[in-house]
């Protein structure tokens, strides 16, 4: 080979960032890339090849997203945490456990379990021995072509996990059914089911202290989501999952940035939980999630899904816009009803923010005085202790209207009236709100049903009503 040709090969070789292992002058110093005390494990150049190579999902967008989580490995954990691509045949004992409007959910055994890597003294990375774990597999209907909606849910779920500092359900990775070609999210399995099923099967054994805990932990999750600038858009009791006596919000399929709106003029969700301004065609806002939170509060009080006895149709949407609100269970403390009705105020600007909900509910749960919100611990404790006495007297059996549908779907409404509060609710529960007169009518509704636990980190957040 001539000298000119040899120099050309060396030049091209160097441009590819491929260096002779024995060349000290060209080596990049990666000693500072590994700093576990500060949650740093590697950079893009020194990431272990065994993690980043040798797999593909068959979709460039999915591959790039997974690789981004590897390159930018999370800094919130003692060990490197990132998403994995997992072959479908690494799951067994799959059983369908749920179905929503846009997805099916299965329980399954992940044969290998979450990959855990350790760095050895010689600088190489070694994978921990596989340990099978139970997981949930969420199959998004029609995801064969990797729609933007599916990729959006993946990104939202992952970003929420990072933002929450792991105090939420884990997203482990992605797989794909080789027969249907649908993509599937691999998630932590919530073995206690959703809040709706818990209320249905065990309502009379749930104290008010536990109810407040469910709500406070959900408020923490909602606050974290809102602090990302995202709304949930499908917040209801079926999307509050429970694991180890702790509550976690889930299902971010409809979530998105608060500065982005769908342009198809359709409304998505479970009708009783959709805010009246959204039913009326107004853009979805963070305040719309708070309305849904108030409906969940009513459900925790009564033990029954809101408006279970009537069709979920245009007539119900119109009544909600005209001030109809869910019923509360007998003996529900007045301070609880007032907070719930603040959440369900027809005027979105008068609803509390998620961090305020967390602050109020956290102090109720811990029976702590709070001058900011005007609650005294002894009075709060006495009110909920008294309410506990009524729980055995609340009948939770009910007959559901066949057209009362509690899975998310699309709606199109036209010519609904401007949202208002009933004058009765306004006088009793919203009388100290400003500019409430713009949202009143004279409708009266019956507010009562006739007599007929998570990681330490989440507990530490129960009393924290800051946005940090």
UniProtKB/TrEMBL annotation:
Annotated ranges, domain Protein kinase: 91-361
Any idea which GO molecular function terms this record carries? ATP binding; protein serine/threonine kinase activity
| Superkingdom field | Eukaryota
* Residues annotated as binding ATP: 128
SUPFAM superfamilies the UniProt entry points to: Protein kinase-like (PK-like) (SSF56112)
Family matches, as Gene3D superfamilies: Transferase(Phosphotransferase) domain 1 (1.10.510.10)
Identify the keywords attached in UniProt to this record, alphabetized.
ATP-binding, Nucleotide-binding
Q: What is this protein called?
A: Protein kinase domain-containing protein
């Amino acid at each position: 080979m001539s000298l000119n040709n040899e120099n050309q090969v060396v030049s091209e070789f160097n441009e590819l960032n491929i260096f002779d292992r024995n060349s000290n002058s060209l080596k990049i110093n990666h000693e500072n890339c590994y700093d576990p005390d500060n949650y740093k494990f590697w950079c893009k150049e020194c990431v272990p090849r065994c993690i980043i190579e040798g797999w593909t999902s068959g979709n460039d967008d999915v591959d790039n997203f997974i690789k981004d989580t590897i390159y930018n490995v999370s800094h919130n954990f003692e060990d490197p945490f990132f998403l994995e691509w997992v072959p479908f045949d690494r799951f067994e004992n799959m059983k369908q456990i749920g179905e929503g409007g846009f997805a099916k959910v299965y329980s399954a055994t992940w044969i290998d379990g979450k990959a855990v890597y350790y760095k050895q003294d010689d600088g190489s990375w070694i994978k921990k021995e596989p340990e099978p774990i139970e997981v949930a597999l969420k199959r998004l209907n029609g995801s064969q072509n990797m729609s933007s909606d599916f990729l959006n849910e993946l990104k939202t779920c992952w970003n929420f996990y990072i933002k929450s500092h792991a105090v939420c359900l884990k997203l482990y990775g992605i797989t794909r059914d080789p027969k249907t070609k649908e993509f599937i999210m691999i998630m932590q399995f919530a073995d206690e089911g959703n809040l709706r099923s818990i209320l249905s099967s065990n309502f009379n054994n749930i104290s008010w202290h536990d109810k407040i805990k469910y709500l406070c932990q959900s408020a923490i999750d909602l606050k974290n989501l809102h602090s990302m600038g995202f709304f949930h858009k499908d917040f209801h009791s079926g999307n509050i999952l429970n694991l180890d006596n702790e509550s976690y919000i889930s299902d971010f399929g409809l979530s998105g940035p608060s500065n982005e709106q769908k342009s198809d003029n359709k409304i998505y969700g479970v009708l009783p939980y959709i805010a009246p301004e959204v039913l009326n065609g107004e853009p979805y806002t963070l305040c719309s999630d708070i309305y849904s939170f108030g409906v969940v509060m009513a459900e925790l009080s009564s033990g029954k899904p809101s408006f279970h006895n009537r069709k979920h149709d245009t007539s119900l949407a119109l009544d909600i816009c005209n001030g109809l609100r869910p019923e509360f269970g007998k003996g529900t403390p007045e301070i609880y009803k007032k907070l719930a009705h603040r959440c369900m105020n027809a005027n979105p600007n008068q609803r509390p923010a998620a961090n305020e909900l967390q602050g109020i509910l956290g102090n109720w749960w811990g029976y702590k005085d709070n001058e900011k919100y005007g609650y005294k611990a002894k009075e709060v404790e006495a009110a909920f202790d008294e309410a506990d006495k009524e729980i055995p007297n609340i009948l939770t059996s009910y007959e559901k209207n066949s057209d009362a549908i509690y899975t998310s779907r699309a709606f199109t409404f036209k010519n609904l009236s401007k949202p208002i509060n009933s004058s009765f609710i306004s006088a009793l529960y919203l009388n100290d709100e400003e500019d409430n007169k713009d949202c009143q009518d004279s409708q009266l509704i019956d507010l009562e049903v006739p007599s007929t636990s998570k990681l330490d980190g989440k507990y530490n957040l129960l009393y924290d009503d800051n946005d940090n």
